[in-house]
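quick q for whoever's on today - can somebody do inverse folding on this one?? i tried earlier but teh output was garbage lol. tokens:
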């Protein structure tokens, strides 16, 4: 039977019923045998022949709808609770949370090159980079990063991580010769809601001319969003390869990154040095167009009728 515990923030948290065969949490669809025993979906499919292991009665196609409804509506703890995650949500939303839970098992961001097969927890990733990928580590904000051996005529991808406190950011540069574009993407290892609260400034400085620089501002993406999806949608810094070539010298490119978290309910404060104009006065000013005397007398908007005669008489 399902048991309930009280969570002060979320209310009662239900310990979901376990399958009597595999002892894992039940998952829909849930079928019953002729005696009423319910098994999880995977165990039901594995039965050969379809006979209940508990009572040896035949399994039926009767669904346990009440139990399935309980599973969808029940509030449950994250499976990573044992190692520190305090997140609770309804079971139907738990799958999405697991994809972005910072306590989940992670793979090295450099796995895209096929050179690293490391996997572990977020708190272990920094030590892994220090030991094996120190050249792909950005330790401080505004640190100047130089990419060497960059050839805009060859497809390539460069990946870095930047730790900031308990946060970890993934920075990706992709060279796409087919599209003739370069993409910069910044992702935060966190849920999308928290990632959107962070904005980054990417500054690319030319190694040919120090006065040439490009600054790009945008929100961070969550690492739960595939990097490929971010690049394909162009929701990041995009630059033509011909333009990027003006920032490269001897196959080297330099950039820096700064990330800040937005304040809740952030609003730009009004400039106190600007004089506030009365709305009525501003309205009258909009209808007034200053003209020189010659423009009034001889211009296309010169007065007509009696007023024109009065001016000519003067």
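ok took a stab at it. sequence:
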């Amino acid at each position: 039977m399902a048991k309930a515990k009280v969570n002060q923030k979320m209310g009662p948290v239900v310990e979901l019923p376990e399958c009597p065969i595999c002892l894992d949490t039940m998952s829909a669809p849930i079928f019953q045998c002729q005696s009423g025993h319910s098994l999880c979906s995977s165990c039901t499919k594995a039965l050969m022949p379809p006979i209940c292991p508990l009572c040896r009665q035949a399994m039926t196609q009767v669904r346990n709808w009440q139990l399935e409804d309980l599973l969808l509506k029940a509030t449950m703890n994250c499976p990573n609770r044992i190692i520190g995650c305090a997140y609770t949500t309804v079971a139907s939303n738990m799958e999405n949370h697991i994809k972005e839970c910072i306590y989940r098992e992670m793979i090295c961001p450099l796995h895209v090159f096929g050179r690293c097969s490391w996997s572990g927890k977020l708190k272990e990733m920094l030590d892994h980079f220090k030991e094996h990928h120190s050249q792909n580590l950005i330790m401080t904000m505004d640190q100047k990063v130089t990419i060497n051996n960059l050839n805009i005529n060859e497809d390539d991808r460069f990946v870095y991580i930047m730790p900031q406190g308990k946060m970890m950011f993934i920075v990706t540069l992709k060279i796409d010769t087919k599209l003739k574009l370069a993409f910069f993407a910044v992702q935060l290892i966190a849920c999308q809601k928290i990632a959107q609260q962070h904005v980054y400034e990417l500054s690319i400085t030319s190694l040919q001319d120090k006065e040439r620089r490009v600054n790009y501002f945008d929100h961070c993406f969550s690492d739960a969003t595939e990097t490929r999806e971010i690049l394909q949608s162009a929701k990041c810094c995009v630059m033509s390869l011909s333009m990027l070539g003006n920032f490269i010298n001897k196959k080297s490119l330099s950039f820096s990154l700064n990330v800040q978290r937005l304040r809740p309910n952030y609003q730009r404060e009004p400039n106190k040095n600007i004089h506030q104009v009365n709305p009525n006065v501003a309205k009258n000013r909009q209808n007034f167009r200053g003209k020189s005397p010659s423009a009034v007398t001889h211009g296309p908007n010169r007065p007509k009728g009696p007023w024109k005669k009065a001016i000519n008489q003067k």
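fwiw The CA atoms of residues 206 and 247 lie 4 Å apart. also The longest helix spans residues 122-132. so keep that in mind when u check it
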